[in-house]
Amino acid sequence: MESEYLVEPVGPPLLLESHTDLCDLTVGLSGLRIAVLVGRDDMESDQFVEVVFPTFRGFRYLDEGDLLRYWRSGSFDTANYVVFELKSGGWGRQEERNGMLNVTGAIGSYREWLVVSGNACVNVIAHIEPLVRCIGITGSRRI
Fold it and tell me: Which of 10, 32, 91, 128 could bond 83 through an S-S bridge, CB–CB 3.0 to 4.6 Å?
C-alpha cells in the first residue's frame, strides 16, 4: 500500500535513542524558532536541534498523539530525524481542500515542514526552507 504522504527528512540523521522534547517555540521579528531537545551527551550536556524559519506563512502546534495518522503511515523516520518536509498530503493541502489558506494558496508555491518531538509537533507553511542546526551534537551518533 502506497503512503498518502510524501515526506523527505531534513538535516543529518541523529540516531535518536532517548525521548525528544519540543522545548522552545518563539515568534518574533527574526521569524519562527523551534528548539527540540534530542538527548544528552556523555557529559550530561543537553543536545538540541534548532529550526528557524526566517519567514513563514503559518504554523500549527499539536500534541504528537493528535497526529496518529502521520505515524501510522510509516512515512516518518522519527528514530533518526526531527524535521521533515511534507511534499504531499500535509496540513496545508488539507486546509486548502477545506476552503482555507486562500491568500497563501494564491501566492502559490508554498512548502510545508513538520518538526517532531515526543511531546509536541509543529507544522509550518513557508516559501523557503528552514535553517536547521545541531547544538552540542558532533557527528552522526546515538544520543
Answer: 10
Give the pTM: 0.84
Please give the Cα distance from 94 to 100 (Å, whole number). 9
- Helix (H) / strand (E) element for 102: namely helix 102-107
Q: Summarize pLDDT for 107-131 with one digit per residue, the tens.
A: 667 789 999 999 999 999 998 999 9
DSSP letters for 75-97? ---TTT-SEEEEEESSHHHHHHH
In three-state secondary structure terms, 64 is: helix
CB 83 within 8 A of CB 30: no
CA distance linking residue 88 with residue 3, whole number of Å: 10
- Identify the helix (H) or strand (E) that includes residue 48: strand 46-53
Q: What is the side-by-side strand order in the sheet with 31-40?
A: 21-28, 31-40, 46-53, 131-135
Q: Three cell numbers at 119?
A: 511531546
